[in-house]
Amino acid sequence: MKKQRLVIVGAGSTYTIGMIMSLIAEKENFPLKSITFYDIDKERQERVAKATEVILKEKYPELEEFKYTTDKKEAFENVDFAFIQIRTGGLSMREKDEKIPLSYGVVGQETCGPGGMAYGMRSIPDMIELIKDIRKYSKDAWILNYTNPAAIVAEALRRVFPNDKKILNICDMPAAIMVSYAKILGKEIWDLVPEYFGLNHFGWFTKIYDKEGNDLTDKLKNHILNKGFVPEDAEIANDKSWIKTFKQVETMIKDFPEYLPNTYLQYYLYPQKMVEKEDPNYTRANQVMDGREKRVINLCNTIIKDQSIENVHLEADIHGRYMVRVAASLAYHNCDIFIVIVENNGIISNLPDDAMVEVPAMITSHGPKPFAVGKIPTFYKGLIEGQLAYEKLVVDAFFANDYDKMLQALTLNRTVVNAPVARKILDDLIEANKDYWPELK
Ligand code: NAD
Ligand code: G6P
Ligand code: MN
Q1: Phi first, then psi: what are they for 160, rounded to 5°?
Q2: Which residues does substrate bind (predicted)?
Q3: Rounded to 5 degrees, what are φ and ψ at 434?
Q4: Tens of pLDDT along 75-114?
Q5: 290 is known as an active-site residue
Q6: What is the pTM of this model?
Q7: Is 233 a known active-site residue?
């Protein structure tokens, strides 16, 4: 097996240590020659890198090289894979994305509604620049992107790099949900075969099979309706906010029993309830800053001080393992099935070809080979078309610097609807994002 050279972009991320543990857990499936870290924030990256050095020395002694840098050439030269996980504007801008809409009684969320739009407008230029830079130094590398909002990023990259078939956008949510399904069914996530369709953070599982072809969908629905639904993956299992979110799946299945929903649909189907449960002065961004971010900083500091991992608890999570398994399937033509974000081109036959859809695909060394979904029923089609139009308008607005298109996008979004409210939120977001967004005409 050829050993791979990997660069992690945005290596100061709160998810990097989990990714490193996942690379260690998956080293038989995805053996590495080298890992390089790249970030624009030297200090943030250095802490994670120094802790990673200690972890790798203990758990991955056969790795030939580990380095970290803020120099693009050094980072991107001669790599086989780039995993991207940047957050333009950091968690402090996420806080504004959430608080501004909430102050108008509208959903304030990282990737959904106005917050997602604001974040998208910040992510697009950085992502375009990064792809160009990676391509300058490594023409053939696989670029796997986790950067959010994945739907909007994927649409922008599709437009700018139409011929680049080695960029793949991924979301960990379907996998995190499948970890909970697997637990209910007494199986491993890798034993399950999903059927799924939608947009990123806007989709449904239509079937869950095991590898023998047994249909487990009804068993899952009944379990969720009778016994509830909880997050099981280590990263989110004990998080109050995620526990509430998974609980909402029960309500969604009661109201719409046909399919098993992605958790993110709660923001579109119950926007009022989502607003009511939020504290507009202490949102998810605050929880993450006081929770995951602090936890990771303390973890890294302890490892660096001890020069050992004996006093910390480290675990691979589904976020990391999913990305690594997709990479392995691309590298070694495993032909495993993963839910990924690809250009529609007839997969969902009653949606436009140029939609970026989230569907299962066989992942080969020639890229993802998505399975046909066919026609989807009117309810889902209607919901998706509205959301798709919003996503397209955001990207249109970005490239045309067009205020009116942004207003159209926000008004179309199910979390907003009301035009005067859309305008107020938009005007506040423009002010908050003046260091990031293009100037709108
Ligand atoms: P974070 O702020 O902790 O880390 C992001 C890192 O990216 C920071 O160290 C920052 O300095 C760096 N960065 C910012 N702009 C950069 C640029 N232009 N080039 C290089 N580095 C840059 O954020 P986080 O909470 O760990 O999340 C990281 C990203 O992963 C976010 O986009 C988040 O939304 C995304 N995410 C996606 C999924 C998914 O399902 N697709 C799941 C989890 C997280
Ligand atoms: C899931 C989604 C990601 C999102 C993350 C936010 O993993 O798939 O797209 O970024 O949740 O989680 P947080 O704990 O930061 O709110
Ligand atoms: Mn996601």
Answers
A1: -80, -30
A2: 94, 148, 284
A3: -65, -20
A4: 999 999 999 999 999 999 999 999 999 999 999 999 999 9
A5: no
A6: 0.98
A7: no
